[in-house]
Write a structure and sequence with these properties.
6-stranded mixed beta sheet; 2 helices; alpha+beta; 5-stranded antiparallel beta sheet
């Protein structure tokens, strides 16, 4: 195939490439797509962080209950402040001092999703589902929940059987928009995980 020539008769070869206008348009399209995608990705990340914190919190409650049954004795679940978050774990050495020792199994619930003292939506749906009028929120530090050898809840270490339904609210103190999680602990020692958007209502998820 013959190459095209310019007026001087010199062969001219076409060079492929983008014009400035095409590059600007491409960049604009990328920016628009990024502006759409980033908020969706952030919502997914925040939801993951909330679910992860609630799951790890519930897992430590389950571990403490298992330890009480396995050792056939009472074991305290302990929640204590650590920086802007909380350490939660099992007081497996039975010193009942309400504090976690470095050698005891524990989890750090901190960062975006942590235990919050207030700000969660009203737990109307939870109360209705459990057929109760009262939940006992737990957020003070340190706090303890005592499991007995059957895995049920006691009023304190060495105390009597408890009838309280405890709830631990998990969310963000600075951004309520992604929603909240609630770990509900029943007197029998079993537990549930509930989820709610920023304004409610609550739905049981686990």
């Amino acid at each position: 195939m013959a190459k095209s020539a310019n007026r001087s008769g010199t062969p001219r070869t076409a060079i492929a490439g983008f014009s400035i206008v095409e590059m600007v348009i491409s960049i604009c399209v990328m920016l628009v797509l990024s502006a759409i995608a980033i908020p969706t990705l952030m919502r997914s990340l925040r939801a993951y962080q909330l679910n992860d914190a609630a799951t790890r919190f519930a897992s430590m409650l389950k571990f403490t209950r298992f330890e009480a049954v396995r050792q056939n004795t009472q074991v305290n679940f302990v929640m204590q402040a650590s920086g802007t978050g909380y350490l939660v774990g099992a007081d497996s050495n039975h010193n009942a001092n309400g504090l976690l020792d470095p050698t005891e199994r524990q989890e750090l619930i901190a960062g975006f999703a942590t235990v919050i003292p207030s700000g969660a939506p009203a737990p109307t749906a939870i109360l209705t589902a459990l057929n109760t009028s009262t939940l006992t929120p737990v957020s003070a530090s340190p706090s303890t929940i005592t499991f007995d050898a059957r895995g049920a809840i006691r009023t304190s270490y060495g105390g009597g059987v408890s009838s309280n339904i405890y709830v631990f609210y998990i969310g963000s103190m600075i951004d309520p928009d992604p929603g909240f999680r609630a770990v509900v602990l029943l007197p029998s020692g079993s537990m549930q995980i509930w989820s709610a958007p920023g304004s409610g209502p609550w739905q049981k998820v686990g």
